[in-house]
C-alpha cells in the first residue's frame, strides 16, 4: 500500500480534494471531492516527485518531474490530477 506523503496531502487541500490510499489494485491513491469518489491515480510500480526526493534528493526528483511533464503534454482529467497531486 502506498503511503500518502505530506506533499500530496497539501496539494490535495489546495485543490479542495481529499486523498486516501487506493482500494484499486496497482493504484496509489483514490481522489475524492466533497466525499464523492472521482478517480484513482498513480501506478504503484512507478515513482513520483515526493518519493524521488526521499530516495534520491531534490535535484534528481526535479529532473524526473521535468521528464514526466514532457511525456504528458496532453492531459486527461486523471493525468491532470496525477500531475498536480504527485508531481
Q: Into how many domains do the coordinates divide?
A: 1
Shape: globular
- N-end to C-end Cα span: 19 Å
Q: Kindly estimate the percentage of residues that lie in beta strands according to DSSP.
A: 15-25%
Q: What is the radius of gyration?
A: 12 Å
- Overall mean pLDDT score? 95
Total strands = 3
| Share of helix, binned | 40-55%
Strand order of the largest sheet: 1-2-3
Structure overview:
By secondary structure, the chain is α+β, with helices and mostly antiparallel strands. It has one domain (6-86). It has helices at 6-14, 49-56, 58-71, 77-86, and strands at 18-21, 27-33, 36-43. It has a 3-stranded antiparallel β-sheet, with helices on one face. A hairpin with a 5-residue loop joins strand 1 (18-21) and strand 2 (27-33). Helix 2 packs antiparallel against helix 3 (58-71).
Label this structure with key terms.
3 strands; alpha+beta; 3-stranded antiparallel β-sheet; 4 helices; 87 residues
Write the layout of secondary structure elements.
Elements: H1 6-14, E1 18-21, E2 27-33, E3 36-43, H2 49-56, H3 58-71, H4 77-86
Antiparallel strand pairs: 1-2, 2-3
Helix pairs in contact: 2-3
Concise description?
This protein has 87 residues and is of the alpha+beta class.
Amino acid at each position: 500500500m502506498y503511503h500518502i506523503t505530506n506533499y500530496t496531502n497539501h496539494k490535495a487541500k489546495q485543490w479542495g480534494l481529499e486523498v486516501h490510499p487506493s482500494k484499486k489494485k496497482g493504484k496509489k491513491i483514490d481522489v475524492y471531492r466533497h466525499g464523492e469518489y472521482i478517480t484513482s491515480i498513480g501506478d504503484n510500480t512507478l515513482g513520483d516527485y515526493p518519493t524521488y526526493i526521499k530516495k534520491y534528493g531534490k535535484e534528481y526528483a526535479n529532473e524526473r518531474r521535468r521528464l514526466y511533464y514532457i511525456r504528458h503534454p496532453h492531459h486527461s482529467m486523471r493525468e491532470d490530477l496525477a500531475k498536480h497531486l504527485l508531481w
